[in-house]
Amino acid sequence: MTLENWLWVLAFVAVLLAVAVISAVHAHVALRNRLLRTWGELPERTSRDSEDSLKEAYLASSKLRPTTSVVDDLTWHDLDLMRVFRLLNQTESSVGAEALYAKLRGFDLGQPNVDEQLIAFFAGDQVARMKVRTAFARLGKLDHNQSQNYLLSTTSGALANVWRYRLLGLLPLFGLLLALILPFAGLLVTIGSLIFNVIYYELKKEALTLELNAMRYLVQTITTAGALVKVTTPKQAALQQALRPLAGISRHAFTFRAKSGSMADLITDYISFMFMLPFIAYNYVLRTLRLNKQAALDLWAVMGDLEVAIAIANFRLAMPGTCTPTFKDGGVSATALRHPLLDEAVPNDVSWHQTALITGSNASGKSTYVKSVAINLLLAQTINTATAKTFACAPGHVVTAMAVQDDIAAGDSYFIAEIKAIQRLLNLVAKGERVYGFIDEILKGTNTVERIAASAAVVQWLNQTSALTMVATHDSELSEILAGQVVDWHFQETVDQAGVHFDYRLRQGPATSHNAIALLQAMHYPASITEEAQRLAHAFEQSRTWPTL
């Protein structure tokens, strides 16, 4: 090649390097701007962090770190807690998202598992917060990453006779050394061993590739920990201690790097296969995890704590009107309590120290109030935060029976599904546990007489235990039957020519008004229907018997 050709080649390489540098700088600036812009804001919705993936990781981690109280699936879905999780989920990695999800699904009674010192640190130190968020953002998120399953079972999938792979990987190097003495023999050994290794890998490729892909995120997480230990935080010493016996795993990060499918990836992969590096690295990681399992668990816990603390600090800043709860014996007391999922929630106070019946007309706010109390009991005991001006409670399990549906697969009718949902509460209470129970439209799936009779019996039974129960119902008869045993609250409406209006304010005593027929009028039902309905309702209220049509 002439000098001019070489100059063109060098110029082309320089352009490629310049493009790579500019692209990297642009990505860094874009990331920095995003992290600055999103701080103090409720999180943006992401396509990552699917509920199936988060639950999969939680089920594995819960076996490693069991808790004294668990939010079961019915309560989780009744309270729409996945949406609550998304309000909190200002995390940049799956490590943080999985830790936050696990924190909301399980907790130890009386011991909110959050580090207030760490939360305050990240709330006040923007430089450290940016460094930590940047490190986690570079790690990124990967659903179904299997890290928790590897931590749970560090020996599953281990390859037998690992010495064989080391020997095969060394043969090409031995051939090169042999070629210095016996060129033909050395070349034969080198080429033969390289061809054998590639063929052997191709035979084992499918199973090993799946394992390497699954392990990739775990190795990248440990590499990220290496960056995090350089940031001064209250967790720095704990992070260093947990990382120390695992640091060697980072040396194999090349084997587990993220791949784009480029020609460069294909070439480097085949070089790795020729020297059996994937087999050696895979077994090395499993062996290191097995020998240092507690350190690995500690590392994941500390890294999760970092992102959870940032998420909680952000939530407290972005969500107006939050407080740190206090824990004491008794019931639940709160001022200006709000439902966190409503943009313009009407605040209500809470003074709940005995079984409560909440009555009121349709859409008046009963269910929303019940859910706001239940959600805040969980937020208080999990992330040490409540969406209220003040909040105090005694520690206790939270169980709901609200958004009940029939189960066609199990052959359960609506009523069967409903009594099974309530039975969860009864069973837990029967064990002597402190339970907060929330029931919406109790036993509405059966006839009026048996519904009221059974509902009264259930509420009376619960009232004789240590449980604290809140029941939303349309059955005003329950207030009469249980008079003196429960406290009555209600929501009400006003009706005028413009329609039905609600103020969503909790009031003392049972409801004294109804709005179902007024809603029929507002929907322009025929006047003959609404007038006849009013006549029948009035007759029943006067005599407590139904007239014959």
From TrEMBL:
It comes from the Bacteria. Residues 353-538 form the DNA mismatch repair proteins mutS family domain. Pfam families: MutS_V. Keywords: ATP-binding, DNA-binding, Membrane, Nucleotide-binding, Transmembrane, Transmembrane helix. InterPro entries: DNA_mismatch_repair_MutS_C (IPR000432), MutS (IPR045076), P-loop_NTPase (IPR027417). The chain crosses the membrane at residues 6-27, 173-200, 267-285. Signal peptide: none annotated. PANTHER family: DNA MISMATCH REPAIR PROTEIN, DNA MISMATCH REPAIR PROTEIN MUTS FAMILY MEMBER. This is DNA mismatch repair protein MutS. It comes from Lacticaseibacillus hegangensis.
